[in-house]
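Hey, can you fold this?
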Amino acid sequence: MSCKCYAALVPAGPLVPHTIERRAVGPDDVAIDIKYAGICHSDVHQAREEWGSAIFPMVPGHEIGGFVGDKVGVGCMVDSCRECQSCKEGDENYCATGAVMTYNGKYKYKHCQEYTEDGGKPTYGGYAQSIVVDKNYVCRIPDNLDLAGATPLLCAGITVYSPMAYNGLKAGQKLGVAGLGGLGAMAVMIGKAWGCEVTVLSRSEGKREEAMKELKADKFVVMSNDSDVEAAASSLDMIIDTIAAKHDIPTYLSFLRQNGKFVMVGVPAEPLDFHAFAIIPKRKTITGSLIGGIRETQEMLDFCGKHNIICPHELISGDKISESYDRVVKSDVKYRFVIDTSTF
């Protein structure tokens, strides 16, 4: 079926009105009437081909909110091999042969409805008015959550929730959040609902008020302020590092207590340096985390429903997508752009 969307027709080109064909609804599929799509920084990277060769025309969007009778959402993947240990354990995001990503991917497995012998048809994401997805990769969004605000949870929310859960964060512990963009804001809100004391670690004094008053963080550390940095030494049990630019890892590690965990979810373009002595004497851990599986994503949505957590956002029309990309790069948004697909 034909579907209106916005697409990048060429690498680094503008996002323009376009039409794609969605597959017929199969026996295990659901057809979702998309109402909203969040803009993730990774959309910008891929549409501008900053992460390597990509598939064009590209319809980005892996934060998808809509209806199949009930409120539903689709996140970063729409299928996986289903046979490896990771998939069997519900960690489809770590599929041994690679999950089928919601866009800029291919339906490469034989069980996929759009599998072909030459590698599968391309996937097209959520900057569209509809999508057809295998029901096993669709999550239910709690009724009490505003759909536009809940849509970014499908990437930003699960990206920070998963490492908190996997690494054993407990109520009463002290959580640091490095960076205060979309991921950082969600980490603060989820961390507070978790029952933690939350400290924001930021390079900008200008973000103190929004961190403390709007997001209800408990403490704020300006990384260029020597007294702030000294006072925060050995104070945190875990840090969620959302920063996607080069930064001084040893200083952040100094904020961890013995057995503290430093979890990277942001992806800087350049390699980062640290000395082994920054972690060995206090048995600190550096680890990473990539979104979450479908089961855990549903768990995260239910958690957010219980605590009335949505992502602060700016609603935009389709003709503002290209402009919003430039603003994302400048960190000029609180904290996610969400596209209203009725404007297509």
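Oh, and this one too while you're at it.
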Amino acid sequence: MAVPCRTSRNREPRCGLAAKAVLGLKQGLDVMRGWAMIRIIAVACGLALVSAAPAAAQNLALRAPAWAQALVAADVTPTTGGRAFIAAEGVPLSVRVTLAPLRGGVARVIRYDLRGDAGVLAVRRFTGHPSTGWWLWGGDAPRVSEVTAAQRAEIASLARSAAGIAGQLGGPAEACPAGEQAYIEIALDGRAVSISRPCVVDSDAGGRLALRLSAIAGSRTEEELAAAAVDELLSADRAFAAMAQTDGVPAAFAEYASSDALIVTSREVLNGRDAIVASYADWPAGARLEWAPETGRVSARGDMGWTWGNSVYIAPDGARTTGRYVSVWTRDVEGNWRYVFDAPIR
């Protein structure tokens, strides 16, 4: 039995999810894998060029051990939210922790900045193995979030303790076969230090700082990363739906569309954001479109995914038409999710 589908701007149910979208998703994932590694290699080459220039004592990125250099390189470019110098004006405390599992899995670069009364965490995630290299997971920009007041105080205390030590501590990597290695940069009250740990444990201040930031940042394992990815994508779809209620359906569909977004209905195909904006310009006054995602999936590289959910169109006269929808999403250059394909299903 046919199920009513999501309703378009002209109040007619929008139908027809092309099978090409599924094939395109698979092909897109294969291409994205290659580009993700190219991005890391290119930025690493950029860091090597910076290393050739005279470096200030606080440019701790230049001191990163060989295993961490490609990972740290992803966080030094300002245009993608990075910073070569961990010390920054107006930031009394900054910490950057680069973590990589010795047996492969999820590596991360976690940067913490204390700005006024706000503690900001910027996290870049990678998948791979030390022997084969790391692929940037998700968008070029980091995932940014704020920490709680209690976490701010805890991080500050741990950072002050860790700043009193420097250099490399701990045994060889073979002594920690199931753990992580870490490179830690700390800028505190005008002083900058770096710490290297071939095995991260909580028996010293540097290890405790790295482990605490690791726990707050999350995405420590492939399982945690996959769960976080779906949660982030569903949150984006919910924010999309919320904007449709507060700012109107036309504004929401324009804001969340990628530049090459495609909307397929039973009567028309809207190709590109400009076409979507033009089509939704005559959205009926007083009409509403409400929806909520049920579930979703995200690609292994974190740069493409899909959601599906239930929707209801409320006409100006109050008549209701229920339906379902499928949206395919990609990330923009800032790492934000934007729909690239949207259509109802029956």
